[in-house]
Amino acid sequence: MSIPNREITAQTEIVLADGYRYGGVFRLIFYDSRKGMIATMKKRWGLRLCSLLLSLVLAVPLAGTVLAAGPSSQTEYAGIDVSEWQGDIDFAKVKADGISVVYIRASVGRYTDPYFQRNYQNAKANGLAVGFYHYLTARTVPQAREEAAYFASVVAKTKPDCHLVMDFEYFSGLSRAQINAIAQAFLEALEEATGRTAAIYTNANSAQNLFDTALAKYPLWVADWSREPQDLGPWENWAGFQYSDQGRVNGISGRVDLDRFTSDMFCDNASQEIPSAGGQTITYTVKRGDTLWGIARRFGTTVSQLAQRNGISNPNLIFPGMVLQISGSASAGESDIVTYTVKRGDTLWDIARRYDTTVAYLAGINRISNPSRIYPGEVLRVPRGSNSRGSSGSSSGSSGIAVRTYTVKRGDTLWGIAQRFGTTVSQLASRNGITNPSLIYPGMVLRISGSAPSESVQTVRYTVRRGDTLWGIAQRYHTTVSRLAQRNGISNPGLIYPGEILVID
Known about the structure:
The chain is α/β, with parallel strands linked by helices. The protein has 14 helices and 20 strands. An eight-stranded mixed β-barrel has the order 4-5-7-8-9-10-11-12, surrounded by four helices.
């Protein structure tokens, strides 16, 4: 074609197009901001003219020109990344369709992908190069280290061909400094636990604007579904590029993420098995807002085991800064997950609190890209807990154990009520769907299994002192004004006198 007879004005830019995207054909594009594209020129139009124009391009700075960030090496491999959302996969067909590398989700927070082992074994058996990734939900540095240890325990005794990857993409409520500290802590702990090189997965915007230079030593697997990666911040190039989340590959029912990986995503020690850390004792520092119940659920143990291991006499009394000893690291798998149907007015934050988990965790296991958008009728996967007992649910009357109710009063604690009725905090919480045993409210009606309060609550005699009220005494002894008045023959609860002896039981 010939060049249209148009004036090249001051607004005209000469842009050297991305050679990779155009199949390696050299193109020059004349673009005028007022008139649009004027013409393109290909190499075959003459070496002399192209040389002249190229000299012009190199001699004059180009306003607005952005060079794409390229792969870290010349060799690229077609890849996919999968999780439980792809269901059963025929990896023989996947390989036959030209896929060489498959990254498999191993875990989210402290949840193990139920398809992890199956996907790993079948992908390996069909000769695919395999890598693992973990969706990070930590909001603090200690939590990041805990998740790194958990990821390491999930992938122990496997032989991945590719680097272990931190998938960090949910940053709500975190500052840039916090994001980088959490990422650094996770990656360092992971490498120490596994002896493997770690890599980072995130989107192009986060790579450019959130991560610091200190993290650039880790290979980058970047997601950008609209174009080739451009500015990657501290990274000069990418080792992995997720270019679509709408891919179709034989052997997989439904859509799948499509990737290109370079040789820099492969590890040198692929033949070595990742070591198992065993059931070592770890420490956990209590943070503001923690409950022993929540900590027990996070580490796959019980309130009573934690209390016994740490000499805690009252499980409701733990304090920020307290260091707990925790044995083992149980795996939260598919059996620990139930479903919850979103109701009108629900928020992901409310649901997370109800199930004693985090927004990041729920977003991760439910593939929620925007945690602010959930809809009535949407079915979410949530951790099994006291709010999800299932149809087997509460004990039936056939057990022969009477069920009575108790109305919580001001000043009550679940610990005190449990002691009074000869039961445990865990049993009361489970019986009444309480996710946080430290949060009970006056007026709440509790169902209690058992025939009567424990006799350990003895009848006492109390001498009224100056300033006492019957209401205050009732609160102190976990009883009611009416019960005190009836037990002591008081016709006017507003009239009690210093020196008066009350019987309390």
